[in-house]
Amino acid sequence: MSPIAVTPPSEDATASDLTINGIENNLSKAAPSLLHSVGTNDALSNTLTTLASNGTKFTNGTATPLAELDASLLITTLTTSPRPVPAPGSPEQASQKVCTDHMITVRWTAQHGWEAPSLHPYGPLSLMPTASCLHYATECFEGMKLYRGHDDKLRLFRPELNCNRMLMSTNRIALPSFPPTELLKLIVKLCATDGPKWLPKSRPGEFLYIRPTMIASDPALGVQRPKEALLFIILTCFPRMDPTSGGLRLLASRDDMVRAWPGGFGYAKVGANYGPSLVAQGEARQMGYEQILWLFGEECNVTEAGASNFFVVWRTLEGKLQLVTAPLRERIILDGVTRRSVLELARARLGKRCGALEGIEIVERKFSMFEIEEAVKEGRLIEAFAAGTAFFIAPVGHIHFRGKDLDIPIKEGESGAYTKVIKNWLKGIMWGKEQHEWGYVVEEED
Q1: What is residue 270's DSSP assignment?
Q2: How much is the pTM?
Q3: Which residues carry this modification: N6-(pyridoxal phosphate)lysine (predicted)?
Q4: Nearest partner of 5 among 43, 50, 39, 44, judged by Cα
Q5: Which of 4, 66, 224, 251 could be bridged to 113 by S-S, CB 3.0 to 4.6 A?
Q6: Shared-domain flag, residues 289 and 421
């Protein structure tokens, strides 16, 4: 399993040192139990990479007055005004505005660290107009789902990866650190509290969207490291986002559109990655496309499809069948949990013939729209799909690139053969049809 890097690589050693030193300082103040005794910047980077990969907890023996995030201190206040649950497929569910009865909030200050978490009725937040997050994009979040399985159980899907990635995101934008295991405990508690009502056993195959978020609530203006922050977790009703018949229609980005760049923050799940993309996304939808296919550089290298990772299945000029997606090393794209799971399942199950499916080589490398265009022209492109938490596994049927319409084959009705089998494997794990270590069962509360 490839690790989630905490710091992006940089050609400028001085800038890299500053980033690593800043993260070390952030961890030592906000979550000292995460900081390992290290002697060099390289060692620190390796330690944090390991931390983000497997959630290991380290100690360094350094005394600190700051309190760490501690889920065992949770204070629970249940609502006296329960909210109605929208019917599946209803306008209320489709609005993406309806949240469950409760939420969790935790406040952090530079003076005292993390306060006791609170589970309480869902409601508005109170922020000053000068709050840092409103002016300087000091905000990050995660996207997860709670599933009601066909075996009646509630499940999360690889939630430790989301918690590790959120730690990485907070450190990238100077928000306080935390033990990922404690964040996971809070997420599980909220799911156990609201899941039984909002995902009843009579609705197998349904899900709620989980949004852990951290914002800088510091009320002082000025470009500086925030001294106050708020972590909150909500559960939201969300519609299925299945593509229309024929697969996703993608509009390849133009030269004047850049989503992310090497040395930037495209690898972190921060709000600043999304707002600037909305103009292009809105333009694409007006033209009849669901998402932008984001390209980078003069080579038009493919990065992401909207906010999802992008995959192609093609034959090389030598006749080798490959599943190809963009690499993580430049930190331009997000290390998606669905992306990682697709790669791991494909390597484990599709490396050799699987039923009627030919064995396939799994490749992470740069590839360009010119290569896709050539593969379509020569009949070597087999299928393509996007992968992410919101869209899940969505087949791609069409790409518009520099005035040309490229039709992507979809040979299994509404999906390509490899797209279909990978999607079914993941659905089986998420909804309990396959017992797998990636399915995290949530014990329900009465």
Answers
A1: B
A2: 0.86
A3: 269
A4: 50
A5: 66
A6: yes
